[in-house]
């Protein structure tokens, strides 16, 4: 069984800016935080969950038939630029804030949800995970204020369906299919 999710990959220039703002602080707190591989940073649109190979093929086929909306700029960061997701199954997650209730993101997620039954997997925020706490039992809220505020916008190119799997003790996200936003 594979774990599937839909995500937007920010342009490399945007990811480099986020790395410049976050990695120095995260490295100074490496005893408490496990930095996510920046090459795999993404904005989660919708977590699908586990799917067997046949279900995965059906989802890919349905995904390749949908029409995505016209791309609109997405704002990342803000004041504060970072957030802490405490209810994550693996423990606290440090993430970059993404514009809440952005109509373009909400519409894109609605379209993606039309091809999969995810009624029991409500995604409440759009976020870009940069690190995970090494210990579940401790709260590390001080790191949120340690990263200086930043704001940026970018125009996304498309949505990618990923399969997430463990390889050599690390989670790896494998792209299965990508759809471009309408022009």
Give a concise summary:
The chain is 24% helix and 36% strand.
Q: Care to describe what's here?
A:
By secondary structure, the chain is of the alpha+beta class. Helices cover 24% and strands 36% of the residues. The chain is built from 4 helices and 10 strands, in the order E-H-E-E-H-E-E-E-H-E-H-E-E-E. The protein has helices spanning 12-28, 53-63, 103-113, 142-146; strands at residues 2-8, 33-35, 43-51, 74-78, 82-85, 93-97, 127-133, 150-154, 158-167, 170-180. Strands 3-1-9-10 form a 4-stranded antiparallel sheet, with helices on one face. A 4-stranded antiparallel sheet has the order 2-7-6-5. A two-stranded antiparallel sheet has the order 4-8. Strand 9 and strand 10 (170-180) form a beta hairpin. The longest helix is centred in the first third of the chain and has 17 residues, at 12-28.
Major sheet size, sense and barrel closure:
4 strands, antiparallel
Strand order of the largest sheet: 3-1-9-10
For the CA atoms, what is the radius of gyration?
16 Å
Mean pLDDT: 86
Q: Report the span from N to C terminus.
A: 35 Å
Number of separate helices: 4
What's the helix-strand series? EHEEHEEEHEHEEE
